[in-house]
Amino acid sequence: MSIEFDSIQTLREALDGKAISATELTKHFLSRIDQLDPSLNSYITVEHERALSTAAAIDKKLMAGERATLLGIPIAEKDIFCTEGVRTTAGSKMLAEYRPPFDSTATANLAAAGVIRLGKCNLDEFAMGSSNENSYFGAVKNPWNQERVPGGSSGGSAAAVAGGLCVAATGTDTGGSIRQPSAFCGLTGIKPTYGRVSRWGMIAFASSLDQAGPMARSAADAALLLEAMAGPDEKDSSCLTVSVDPYSTLIRQPLEGMRIGIVRSLLAEGLSESIAEAFEDCRKGLEKLGATFVEIELMHHHHSVGAYYVIAPAEASANLARYDGVRFGYRCEDPADLQDLYLRSRNEGFGDEVKRRILVGTFALSAGYYDAYYKQAQRVRRLIQGDFLQAFDQVDMILTPTTPTTAFSLGENTEDPVAMYLQDIYTISANLAGLPAISFPAGMSLGLPIGLQLVGPHLKEATLLSCVHQFQQVTDWHHQHPRNWA
Amino acid sequence: MMNFPGWQVDIGLEIHAQLNTASKIFSGSATAFGATPNQQASFIDMGLPGVLPVANGAVFEKAVRFGLGIGAKINRVSKFDRKNYFYPDLPKGYQITQMDEPIVLGGQVTIETEEGEKIIRITRAHLEEDAGKSVHDAYDDATAIDLNRAGTPLLEIVSEPDMKSAADAVAYARKIHQLVTYLDVCDGNMAEGSLRFDANISVRRVNEETLGVRSEIKNLNSFRFLEQAIHFEIERQIQTLESGGSLIQDTRLFDPDRKETRQMRSKETSTDYRYFPEPDLLPVELSDTFIDQIQAGMPELPDEKSSRFQSEYRLTEADARLLANDLTLANYFEAVAQGVTDPKTAANWIKGDLIGKLNETETQISSTPVSPKQLVELIGLIEQDVISGKIAKDIFQALWSKEADSPRAYVEEKGLKQVSDAGALEPLIQTLIDANPKQANDLREGKDKLMGFFVGQVMKQTSGQANPQQVNRILRNLLGL
Questions:
Q1: Mind giving me the DSSP string for B414-432?
Q2: Alpha carbon of B144: minimum distance to chain A alpha carbons (Å)
Q3: What is the pLDDT of residues A371-384, one digit of tens each?
Q4: How far is A358 from chain B (nearest CA, A)?
Q5: Strand A437-445's sheet: what is its strand order?
Q6: CA distance B176 to B208
Q7: How confident is the model at residue B420 (pLDDT cuts 50, 70, 90)?
Q8: Who's near B423: CB < 8 A, 6+ residues apart?
Q9: What is the Cα–Cα distance from B163 to B67, expressed in whole angstroms?
Q10: Which of residues 61-100 of B touch A (CB under 8 A)?
């Protein structure tokens, strides 16, 4: 039995046909977590009791004939979504014991759709990282190869889905944190348009870039989850008020006539050969499905990492100011005075990468530097947005690699922050421009998955999902699972 | 005030006015004063992880109303920024405010000074959230934090340095107090901190063109403290300079007990607030319709009201200004004036008896024990000759002390009706004539002053209830005059 890798559609039929109960399904995943997660470390908190009681309640509903697409589907949540009464750590010592008094909107929406939450997944501290090595709760291992990182910051979510420790998971993406770990772990993960999923209850890293989305085994599964997570929310002023497209229906749209952009300059230096080959194979595959390819330019794309590493830390420096030891979270022992309370609580409560970004952000906003850094970065951001707008006059979406390499080794980039930051070279621009972007599996190299990315215009999630879904009808990269790790 | 020949003073004020909205600027919590600590602090006000601000539409209406009231430009698009600093009662570690694109730009008010009218220019007014409170006396060994006030909407009104004395500054502060209460944007309650002042003060030699080095005195919460702090500061700065010293730009606190200012921090150690646009809130866009609607609903302002009082109620300019000065008082006056025959009588009662009593007992007009309805009834009784003016004053006292409720019923109950009935007065006056033959004779022979003697006697014997005109008439009759 390998129901742990079944699609939501298959599980749906099994649940509705009473081939399996929600409780049995939940127990299956919980026992896999108990047995296998010690070697992955993908969960920070496993909610055995809560998941089983939710499952029992759902079984009653199923027995009573209630039907809904996600009713009884066990998922995991990145531990950056606030969950009422259940500790929400953001991967930080600062919040190691923090129990929020309310649910995030994304969490509440999923619960309303009937999912069973198995637990909360590991992540880079406050979502800052590309390898999941920056967690107070320890590094996460890639189930495809445990010497390798799963990517970050949603590394726990990616490892849990890839390892068959949940059906799908939520992630957040500020500069690639859904897409890069999806690529490293062979998943389909989508970062929606900025404002498509409410940020209420999602612990903030960089407010103007943060966006939640699903990480799943296929575009079809991702479409079902996104449908449930997304939607207007009056608690978030930046949340879009337009209604959500029926993604799970729209994915059946044919690819015929779609125009896909290719940016030559992004395929040149720094890209590993195997990914370049996978890219070419994918292009051919999509052409066979009826898409045409157009070469386009994104003039300012090469400035995106620089702009991002000013804007994101600047916003983070303010967003993380509330962790001061006064009202909640970690407080140092016996503070001598107020200054000591601040200094030691923050010094002891935050990890190195978080401190590095707070310092960078504080510097970038300082008097005398604001214009040269923050303002300049905002100018670059507008130029990048303009480039995309122009490009989407010619094409329906843009195909790029998700990452320059496949999953790298644990410890490989930890001493070199800049090398680590360059991991996000293909993903960051979509965050800066607020555009939807999806990563999907499109090859394997030396036993590690390769991910490619499609970026689309504002609110065209359905276009991206349907393109990947059509591709997944004729390929089986998304059906490959790590079988040698347990 | 002390005089310093050869020096001139420049003062600018930053006034924080708490907007009187029912809920906070970025959360649905109530803003009422005096609740149990932290009972009016929501997850948003506490700055919990994952919360987001949502702007309360009512604050924009209030800010626009103020802007229109001072003839300012209303920015069609304004935005919020984060002002970053650490303080225990600042839950998020930043304050949401408006830095470079405030909602209100420019405008001015006119103040009355001993040297005549002066125009004070207003630089800008912007919206921001208030911080919480640090409570130092609740525990022996700890400071407590009360976040009830955190997120209360503030309008910060920044003036140009157009005030030249403490008196100017107080007149300006009072003018703003009057405006914000008139416009119903702030309750003006000084005791609850609804209006707080930061004063920027500098001095320079009379012929010096550029402004001197300024000190900012923070958080003055009464007109009196504002005046005292400015006096002290002017003297301190001039004495420092005259004795050969130099000043540094700094931020100071006023100690009301010692009536002096003390340095809080100098410019060298001042905080860099690292302002940047608030990414959690969209820019504020105001439509012309929104602004037009507010314009159409603008209340009458003090100067307009004073002119109207002169034309509509025939009040003197001085009376009209006095009564229009405070909105509650003006409303009180109008309520009374409209219920009586002669509005001037209403004005006289209010500025004389009522204001006298208010001042004597340090009572605000808003909590006067005598209602306009009671005063209308009282004046009506005089106008209808039911009671004399003297009795009316006694009844007013009774109303003030709550001994009386309805003046008419009180008059009935105590038998205070003026006696105009000739049948009742005639025997009494005849007895008086009989008892005082010499005075009666003198009066007959033309000593008119003695009329007062007889009237006084009658009033005395009737405890003031006799109608003096009637007494006069009967007396003349009986004496054959």
A1: HT---B--HHHHHHHHHHH
A2: 10
A3: 999 999 999 999 99
A4: 13
A5: A43-46, A116-121, A74-78, A168-173, A211-216, A188-191, A437-445, A448-455, A397-401, A259-262, A292-295
A6: 30
A7: low
A8: none
A9: 20
A10: 82, 84, 86, 88, 91-94
Cβ atoms of B215 and B251 closer than 8 Å: yes
Q: Which residues of B touch A203 (CB under 8 A)?
A: 49-50
Spell A315-354 as b/e; 16+ CB within 10 A means b: bbbbbbbbbbbbbbbbbbeeeeebeebbebbbeebbbebb
Min CA distance, A423 vs chain B (Å)? 25
Interface test with A, best of B44, B51, B143 (most A CBs within 10 A): B51
Paired with A295 in beta bridges are A262
pTM of the model: 0.89
Counting every residue written for chain A, the total comes to 486
Half-sphere exposure of B144 (CA within 13 A, CB side): 10
Centre a 10 Å sphere on the Cβ of residue A49 and count the other Cβ atoms it contains.
Answer: 8
**Confidence label for B474 from pLDDT (cuts 50, 70 and 90):** confident
- Is the pLDDT at B366 greater than 90, yes or no? no
Integer Cα distance of B174 and A152 in angstroms? 59
Distance CA A161, CA A215 (A): 8
| Residues of A annotated as catalytic (active site), given as ranges | 78, 153, 177
* Cα-based distances in Å from A481 to A181, A468, B64: 15, 18, 61
**Cα-based torsion angle of the residue sequence A134, A319, A189, A118 in order, rounded to the nearest 10 degrees:** 70
Which member of A237, A324, A328 has the closest CB to residue B48? Answer: A328
- What single-letter DSSP state applies at residue B341? S
d(CA A125, CA A89): 9
pLDDT at B419 over 80: no
Write down all domains in chain A, each with its CATH number in brackets: 3-261+394-479 (3.90.1300.10)
Q: What 3-state class would DSSP assign to A437?
A: strand
Per the listing, tokens 């007494």 go with B471
Helix or strand or coil: residue B252? strand
H or E stretch covering A266: none
Can you list the domains of chain B with their CATH numbers? Answer: 7-290 (no CATH), 301-414 (no CATH), 422-479 (1.10.10.410)
Mean pLDDT within A465-474: 98
CB pairs below 8 Å between A and B: how many? 98
Q: What is the DSSP string of B289-303?
A: HHHHHHHHTPPPPHH
Nearest to B375 by CA among B403, B401, B411, B345: B345
CB contact under 8 A, A366 and B276: no
Model confidence at A484, in pLDDT bands (50, 70, 90)?
A: low
| Sign of the dihedral through C-alpha A38, A41, A44, A48 | negative
Q: pLDDT, tens digit, for every residue of A396-445? A: 999 999 999 999 999 998 888 887 888 899 999 999 999 999 999 999 99
The Cα–Cα gap between B352 and B373 comes to: 18
State the pLDDT at residue B1. 45
CA-nearest of A392, A374, A443 to A193 is A392
Residues contacting residue A87 through CB under 8 Å, at least 6 positions apart: A45, A95, A96, A97, A98, A99, A120
Q: Specify the 3-state DSSP secondary structure of B337.
A: helix
Pick from A365, A370, A431 the residue to mutate for testing the B interface (most B CBs within 10 Å).
A365
